[in-house]
Amino acid sequence: MSSTLFRTKKVEQSILDTEEPEHALKKSLSALDLTVFGVGVIIGTGIFVLTGTVAKDNAGPATALAFVAAGVACALAALCYAEFASTVPVAGSAYTFSYASLGELAAWIIGWDLVLEFALGTAVVAVGWSGYIQSLMDNAGWAMPAALGSREGSDIFGFDILAAALVLVLTGILVVGMKLSARITSIVVAIKVTVVLVVIIAGAFLIKGDNYDPFIPKEKPVEAGASLDSPLIQLMFGWAPSNFGVMGIFTAASVVFFAFIGFDVVATAAEETKNPQRDMPRGILGSLVICTTLYVLVSIVVTGMQHYSELSVDAPLADAFKATGHPWFAGFISFGAAVGLTTVCMILLLGQTRVFFAMSRDGLLPRFFSRVHPRFKTPHRPTILLGVIIAVLAGFTPLTELAALVNIGTLFAFVVVAIGVIILRKTRPDLPRAFRTPWVPLIPILSVCASLWLMINLPAETWVRFGIWMAAGFIVYFLYGRTHSRLGRGEEAKAENTP
User: Fold this and answer.
1) CA-to-CA distance for 362 and 431, rounded, in angstroms?
2) Among 340, 342, 63, 99, which residue's Cα sits nearest to residue 211?
3) What does the alpha-carbon distance between residue 336 and residue 346 come to, in Å, rounded to a whole number?
4) What letter would DSSP give residue 141?
5) Residue 29 pairs with which residues in a beta bridge?
6) Region at 127 (left for phi over 0; alpha for psi -120 to 50; beta for the rest)
7) How many degrees, rounded to 5, is the angle at CA 121 between CA 103 and CA 224?
8) CA–CA separation, 477 vs 105, rounded Å?
């Protein structure tokens, strides 16, 4: 039995599977498309919210250094993802990479983990988007009925129709085709980046040097735990520790790390990329570099515009402009945040459907879901199924307690991918690698340590819920996946003869 749990799927066979007419995705993406996808999913509510939280509770003006530290931790994982995505250009991201290096059981575990991560991430972002839209509607004098609005913090039973509608519309776009998705994402990302650049450029003229003193505060001038009053922070990240000094920078890095979540979703589109060996590393690393640069500049500007102790928690960028006598920018920033969240939601949904599709094609989930649309060449069946489920989840379910699972799921995937790079280097040194992670095994080991350190700082409740989901995954695997696996049924025995 142990041999079946650790059987690996040859990289050559994974690539051959992508050529089956009924299960082949259309290759239409370029390096620019991938970079846009990465920027589109990384720049979300985090950049508009987290700056104020960590500045007040942890790092002060040194928040910029916290973003740098978090960016370095993500870069370690990104280097590992880039090698795998260029070597195994197949849908499924960490799931596919694990199948090729760690074996079937590990692949199932990470695939099951990613399904949860992307589903909850999509639902949480949809609810956040609904909140922004309702806020803009309220400013315009259009009140949303309580029964059809967001339920966070409300005792009224209702259905968040805006959140559900967003997921269903994006589901339709993803069914029609990746190129359409890329074009829409490009437009929205252009708007979102423009808003961020306006904040940086306009805010630069409002900086006061005194606000940077001290740059690294030694103690907190506000009441401990004040940021925990923010329901948005609790909804998205689940925690906000409080300490200052040099260690406060690293604590802040643990928080702002979650503003970077999403670059790994780019790897799920490897199979739909025209030249994945060249373009996947460019897309993954390029999007991370762009977003880290923007994050650092925004944090420098906002802590220079207003003293860190006075920054708001829910909307630090918008409120900083209000405090300096420029209220018009507040509405502009809120609009940019609302528009920007649409791409975050769509790309997370894209990532989940591709992982589900890859698992189905391998037989670990019903093969019914691995057939692509005859015209659009997209995995329409899992896209529609998951889109409807997530729409209902976003419409009915308060997600405050579940959202932290997105964080632990992402970090767990980072650990598995980093270990997989080391193993595949040992077991398959002959594989052509268009991009090679430098300094192996040092870089993957550092990536594992950084991810584990951030996981340890997550709440105990998150670990319990994560364990329950993983236990359910083991049950599904042993009752269905192990016996229906294509490798288990011998359908890929020909892979053994592949040189």
Assistant:
1) 21
2) 63
3) 16
4) T
5) 273
6) alpha
7) 115
8) 8
CA distance 365 to 8: 17
- Asked whether the beta carbons of 421 and 446 are under 8 A apart, the reply is no
Cα separation, 392 vs 89, whole angstroms: 32
Structure tokens at 104: 């079937």
pLDDT band at 460 (very low <50, low <70, confident <90, very high): confident
State the chain's maximal CA–CA distance in angstroms: 71
Phi, psi dihedral angles at 29 (to 5 degrees): -100, 145
Q: What is the pLDDT of residue 470?
A: 93
3-state SS of the chain: helix, strand, coil percent to 5?
75, 0, 25
Average pLDDT on 48-61 reads 80
Neighbours of 20 (CB within 10 A): 12
Mean pLDDT (the chain, rounded):
83
Residue labelled with tokens 């459907």: 353
φ and ψ at residue 273, rounded to 5 degrees: -100, 135
Residue 230 has pLDDT above 50, yes or no: no
pLDDT value at residue 205? 93
- What angle, rounded to 10 degrees, do the helices at 178-204 and 328-361 form? 150
The Cα–Cα gap between 109 and 120 comes to 17
Crossing angle (nearest 10°) for helices 63-87 and 246-256: 50
Q: What's the pLDDT tens digit per position in 13-41?
A: 898 888 887 878 888 888 998 998 889 88
pLDDT at 307: 92
Amino acid at 204: A
In terms of residues, how long is the chain? 499
Spatial CA neighbour of 139 closest among 331, 333, 341, 332: 331
pLDDT value at position 3? 63
Tell me: the pLDDT tens digits for 311-361?
Answer: 886 678 878 888 888 878 877 887 887 888 888 888 889 888 999 999 999
CB under 8 Å to 448, separation ≥6 — which residues? 414, 415, 418, 419
- The sign of the torsion formed by the CA atoms of 261, 227, 293, 342 equals positive
As a whole number of angstroms, the distance between CA 472 and CA 477 comes to: 9
Task: Give alpha helix (H) positions in 261-327.
Answer: 276-305, 316-323
